[in-house]
Amino acid sequence: MKGMFLTLEGVDGAGKSSHLEWLATWFRSHGREVRMTREPGGTPVGEKLREIVLHEPMHAETEALIMFAARLEHIERIIRPALAAGEVVISDRFTDASFAYQCGGRGLPEARLEMLEAWVHADLQPDLTLLFDLPTEIAARRLATARSPDRFEREQADFHARVRATYLRRAERHPERIRVVDGGQGLEAVRAQLLAILESLP
Ligand code: TYD
Asked: Which residues contact residue 181 at a Cβ distance below 8 angstroms, ignoring those fewer than 6 apart?
């Protein structure tokens, strides 16, 4: 079987993590081996970098470089081997998050990240990206009841609004890869949207 690379994206509080296990179960029930992973993180080095980048104050460019350093490790050690073995890799975030947060949120020029993307994974893109979208005020309300916020979750409303807008712009630019899911609906309604997307896969 051919490997498949699926990524989940969205603003903080959009609910993507609640659907990770359900997505894995769907693929397994269709006879697929599934590897669930996340960014930043996914490897021992990546998880250490995650601790740093989520909690230590740093320059925006350092932040971008760490995201891509962790990503390179993740791609070489986890993603490529799993895809080569024919598995479905489901990653909670990938490079779309760098464009949304480091460019949209922090204001880095996209050309910088395009260079890093060309360096780290010129020949690899997700086969499918599920973008969980919802108004950032609703996402913020969901987060307010959650555990202690990291550096990104502590950002102001306008930061999250720019992140959301950047994600949506990328979805418009890559409609064949990025599918927008209305994350503002209840769990069952979101699942119905996901199911429709999964059942339409080639
Ligand atoms: P997140 O999936 O939200 O983890 P959790 O659900 O445990 O809070 O990811 C952590 C944060 O990392 C999130 O706020 C977005 C940020 N991030 C970037 O800014 N750039 C990136 O390239 C990636 C992968 C994540």
From this structure: 130, 131, 132, 133, 190, 193, 194, 197
